[in-house]
Amino acid sequence: xxxxxxxxxxxxxxxxxxxxxxxxxxxxxxxxxxxxxxxxxxxxxxxxxxxxxxxxxxxxxxxxxxxxxxxxxxxxxxxxxxxxxxxxxxxxxxxxxxxxxxxxxxxxxxxxxxxxxxxxxxxxxxxxxxxxxxxxxxxxxxxxxxxxxxxxxxxxxxxxxxxxxxxxxxx
Length: 171
Prior knowledge:
6 strands, two-stranded antiparallel ribbon, 7 helices, alpha/beta
């Protein structure tokens, strides 16, 4: 299973409230820092990240090999994994280039994730997956695949964990 930080694990779009079970952290991921003015208030304070400390346990009980598919890259192991109870040595999908525009309108991660999956069954958990990505994976990936879109205001919820468990059981 490959997953992203912002959206599924960090419900960043829940700006006015903190979802139940989440704790707030101030982190300084390199990709985010590179977009801030050095010395600015936001640069000093860090990025507000809301994480649920129970998610790591729930993810590790699923019958998947976990991997990061996030712009946080290796910093997800350093900053996110300890806060939610995941091991700090999960595989990281490295992007050749971040945020590139796809000629067919796919999400910029889609083609690279298919290459990474290399014909294996996989689950992709992200908040930016579209119907176009789902159709592309169905047409270009011979093994089973589940693309699970997570609402960035809510993050991973009980129903999402149930979907992940059910899909694995049906495989």
